[in-house]
Structures are given as structure tokens and as C-alpha cells.
Amino acid sequence: MHSSNHIVKFTDDTTVVGLISKNDESAYREEVQRLTAGCRANSLSLNVNKTKEMVVDFRRAQSDHCPLFIDGSHVEIIKSTKNSLVCI
Question: Which domain of life is it from (predicted)?
Fold first, then answer.
């Protein structure tokens, strides 16, 4: 795991938190790929239809975020959720 990423697990939910700096998303995207591969290797089913991505961007000049794909399926980007607590 890259030092800028954290994985939070609770029951059957998993959250990947990645700090993206200098527009380099590679560590975050690699972490998502490792999680996906780990699920597959352990015969766990990752429901991409229920998977969401929330981007918190504090930059003054915000730019579009590249879409995230898991097993060829686009992950929906959401602006908020009632089920998460984000502490920064």
C-alpha cells in the first residue's frame, strides 16, 4: 500500500482513501486495482454497480477528474453521501 492511501473496512464495506497531490493519481488507481485483484483472488464479489467514488478537491482551480473503471465498468462519481463520515 502506498503511504498516501488508506483502506477502511467495516463489515462488508470497504473504503479506499487516497491523497492525490501534484495531479498524480497513480497510487490511488493502483490501490483500487490491488483491491479489485485481491477480491478476485479470494473469490469475493465486488459489486461495481454499488461502488461510488467521491472526490474532495480543495484546489482553487478545480479540474475534471478522470473516470474510474473497475473490470471495464464505470464507477459513478457522487458529490455527497449520507453513509460516510469524512474527517480531514
Answer: Eukaryota
